[in-house]
From TrEMBL:
Gene3D superfamilies: 2.20.25.10, 3.30.300.20. Pfam families: OsmC. Signal peptide: none annotated. The lineage of its organism: Bacteria, Pseudomonadati, Bacteroidota, Flavobacteriia, Flavobacteriales. InterPro entries: KH_dom-like_a/b, OsmC/Ohr_fam, OsmC/Ohrsf. It comes from Siansivirga zeaxanthinifaciens CC-SAMT-1. This is Osmotically inducible protein OsmC. PANTHER family: PROTEIN YHFA (PTHR34352:SF1).
């Protein structure tokens, strides 16, 4: 399977990028780099891709396992190297689950399945970054 995207320059530091889903997104540099901050930053977009990939896995597993979860979010902190090309060398990914009847064991299994088996973006990140995964349960 191939993905095809087209990223078109809109002038200055702004681009519009197509997506196979049909939803386009804008990419722009911050003002400190000659842009206007009117779009996503490319490296941060990679982190959103990582969170989205794993999040979709976990959401699917929550449904399949019929787990009671009121809400969940993924927070990522990533360290960027100092030298060019600047890359992420350390990434901490924290899953936060909220609910009054959380099955911690099953939720951890869902996270583990995504991290170890299903999430292709996670596997790509493993090629260049040290990944740490944390799971937090917030029982109401």
């Amino acid at each position: 399977m191939k993905n095809h995207i087209t990223t078109k320059w809109l002038g200055e530091m702004r681009f519009e990028s197509t997506n196979p889903s049909g939803h386009n997104l804008f990419i722009d540099a911050g003002e400190e780099n000659g842009g206007k901050g009117e779009g996503y930053r490319p490296k941060a977009l990679m982190l959103s891709g990582l969170a989205g990939c794993s999040g979709l896995d976990v959401a699917s597993l929550i449904k399949k396992m019929k787990l009671e979860v009121d809400d969940f979010k993924i927070e990522i902190e990533a360290n960027l190297t100092e030298e060019h090309p600047k890359i992420y060398d350390k990434v901490i990914m924290a899953f936060h689950f909220y609910g009054s009847n959380l099955s911690e064991k099953k939720l951890q299994k869902a996270v583990d399945l995504s991290v170890e088996k299903y999430c292709g973006v996670m596997e790509m990140f493993r090629q260049f970054a040290d990944l740490s995964i944390e799971t937090y349960y917030h029982n109401k």
